[in-house]
Amino acid sequence: MIVTTIPSVEGHKITAYHGVVTGETILGANIFRDIFAGIRDIVGGRSASYEKALSEARESALNEMQDRARQLGGNAVVGTDLDYEVINNMLMVSASGTAVTID
Q: What superkingdom heads the lineage (predicted)?
């Protein structure tokens, strides 16, 4: 499935719009990851465990959005937007876009 942040897919004509689709993932706090991230903050460097968790959360949200687009009969999602929010010490990653059918 093609997923793009722009409102069209170059070289393809949109033949049907199926509506807005979303996917959400909430990443909970993990005490061990938090402890090691804190140590990384003190000595510098990147927190590989947080980066991996964030990447997995983003992929999960995008996959959920694509599944919903398929359920509506779409074969692409245009205008995709990713948002990150902190809610009660948890990170929410949400993806949204418009499910479409392209030729």
A: Bacteria
Between the CA atoms of 62, 65, 66 and 68, what dihedral angle is there, to the nearest 10 degrees?
160
Q: Report which of 20, 40, 41, 38 is spatially closest to residue 29, judged by C-alpha positions.
A: 38
The rounded distance, in Å, linking the Cα atoms of 84 and 54 is 10
**27 by DSSP, 3-state: which?**
strand
Cβ-proximal residues to 67 (8 Å cutoff; 6+ apart), any chain: 23
pLDDT in tens, 41-94: 555 666 677 778 889 999 999 999 999 999 999 999 999 999 999 888 788 999
